[in-house]
Amino acid sequence: MSKRGAFRGGGGMPGNMNNLMKQAQKMQKQMEEAQKQVEEMEATAASGGGAVEVTVTGKHEMKSIRLDEEVVDPEDIEMLQDLIVAATNEAMRKLEEQSDAAMAQVTGGFGGMAGGLPF
Fold first, then answer.
1. Are 37 and 103 within 8 A, CB to CB?
2. Tens digits of per-residue pLDDT, 68-97?
3. Residues contacting 62, CB < 8 A, separation 6+
4. Buried-most residue among 18, 67, 83, 117 (CB within 10 A)?
5. Contact 34, 27 (CB under 8 A)
6. What CA–CA distance (Å, rounded) separates 29 from 27?
7. How does residue 45 score in pLDDT terms, banded at 50, 70 and 90?
8. Where are the alpha helices (DSSP H) in the chain?
9. Computed from CA positions of residues 81, 84, 87, 88, in that sequence, does the dihedral angle turn out positive or negative?
């Protein structure tokens, strides 16, 4: 019987839980807003000295690709393919950096822990 009474009579616990829930709801809303921002981001990268340029979106979709005429050599398709892959990978890396920075503002550095919550 003393265990039951001790928990109910603690007084501070319900208030702390309410505050924690409010903080979690606030962070969830901020995370949703940050995710929308990330989806609207774009990153552009080039390869081959700028001969190939790729733009990707925060939804991890390729938005555009630009090729200089001189890089389109029917005798060397493999080089063009490599340049497209390199530019796309670099654009994705840039996008990931932007995304991580946006999320870190919301999570305060706890990005990998329970969705940003330190427990």
1. no
2. 999 999 999 999 999 999 999 999 999 999
3. 54, 55, 56, 88
4. 83
5. no
6. 5
7. very high
8. 2-8, 12-40, 77-107
9. negative
